[in-house]
Amino acid sequence: MDFIDPHIHMVSRVTDDYETLARMGCVAVSEPAFWAGFDRGTVDGFRDYFEQLTAVEPKRAAQFGIQHYCWLCINAKEAENVSLSREVISMIPEFLDRPGVLGIGEIGLNKNTKNEATVFLEHLELAIKYDQPILIHTPHLEDKYQGTRMILDMLCDDSRVNPDRVLVDHVEEHTVSEVLDRGFWAGMTLYPVTKCTPDRAADMIERHAGERLLANSAGDWGISKPTAVPDLIFTMRRRGMDEALIRKVVHDNPVEFFSKSKQFHYTPR
Amino acid sequence: MSQQTADEILDASYLEVRAKVLELAAVLDRLDRAPGGTERSPRRDQLTQAIEMLLADDPDRAAKVQHWFSRQYDPDWKTKLGVETPSTK
Q1: Cα distance from A55 to chain B (closest Cα, Å)?
Q2: B5 touches chain A (CB under 8 A)
């Protein structure tokens, strides 16, 4: 089955992973800007990173017939440096018209601090000013519930934000309903130990009928599995779930959500 | 609604769940054997109570356990952090 991984950090993966993904049916990926594993010190460090996301990765993906899209921001972990964050936010418009740039992301919270909230709100202003869709990172483990509610508060406090153009990622059992009930799209991350397993994701799909739900691997430089979406497909099939429902979650929903960006020019094969 | 019957789910997951229960039992034994003791550790307490939550007759155990391991949401967080959003300006 053709699938799209809507959240994967390919800059951290070897080229073999693109080949494996292609062999397993991956037709497109979207790569949000994220933390490199260390705090970058200058705006030029981010400029180079955005160059890699918008110019290098699409070429690497294309070798295997995979369409590569991306999202731009300074992530929540680096938002404690508010002055650098503001420099990066000012620089992002240089890249917004590049092919394949879908919007602003993954913005969000990490430890739910004042500086993170300030930088999140300034990213929202940027997205609104340039009419961009938004991809959101929610915190990990014990901070997830509190952080997700804070993010939803900030989004819902602003009448200019259209929930139908916002994907809230890394939802789990205790956050998925609130995200969907408020009209946002929700992403489930299949990531060992700290996030969701294929079976638990299939449970959430069963409960919410797959409406506005996406699944991703969030494959990155940590212990993660870039082929987690095919694992979900396999799990859903093993459980006898309908092929149309599987396709909706792993292909049709990403296409529908990404189509809210004018930069999404997807060609199904 | 699940596509599988309860019996089918049990057939498919019995050995896996059995292994997970054994793993839990072994970790608790290991903690008991280890020097230092964890009887007064809040994390040990949190794990014990989470395990007890699994025995409840409740269709939302996964969400309840997630909440049990989560920090509370404070609706007054914007005032406490001094954060202004369009609705508070």
Answers
A1: 35
A2: no
